[in-house]
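haha ok so turns out i had the wrong file open the whole time. this is the CORRECT one, sorry everyone. sequence first:
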Amino acid sequence: MKTLITLAAILFATTASAEVKIVNAGSDTGAFRQVLTTIGETIDHTFIQANNPVTAYTYMQGDDILTVWSSEWPGNNDMQSPTIDATNLVALMTYETMICSRTFTSLSDMSGKQVKLATWGSEPVAKFLTTLGTTHNIDFVVVPFGGSGSTTKGYIAGDADTVFTITTRLTAIQEDSATACIAFSDEGDLGFRFVDAIATVNADATITEQLRSTVATLSTSTEWLDAFSGTSTYVGGTEANVSMFNEAVVNFSK
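then structure:
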């Protein structure tokens, strides 16, 4: 699979003259960093670790920017977000979610109890957990972290006995032998998944199309499929992809 990545890098280098500025709006241990670092290995770039979307947006005034932008963020009227549309959407990534615990064996086992839950401090996540708690008579007390990577580390360290996170963290979570993963979005237990856009900002059509080709190549590699197990990658600024992102924005805004 290294050959695929090398070929993508050669293709990009021979057709693009501009250096891409990669801006990571997520944490330095989360999935956004992992995605952007993987793409960055194939292209000439500079990397900015912004840690949050507010700071990240301040770096988006120049040209030829690549970022990952959560569909959680455009629905927040207090936060500035770049426009994500058919012209600049490189790919969508959808992340399935799960709840795991070293204390409980099912959602029904949590009924009537207060459950300290590790996850990251996101308003849509909080709304989802409130609804889930009401449905199953669970009082979730969130222990907030900065992203999926730090959430996993916090759970493994024992900061909480239950965790809500993306299924790409399954292998790491299961390093704790006492853990049982008890609910999954892709099995219908949880009505929540993340939809994130890999997108360019202020880049011309040539750069954007070359990045689409690069991600298309990467997303079929064993490296990518292993690193992002439990996700689906949809390349291109198609009507279906743009609609999927916009629908997620609306759902997160409710």
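The mean pLDDT is 90.
again sry for the mixup
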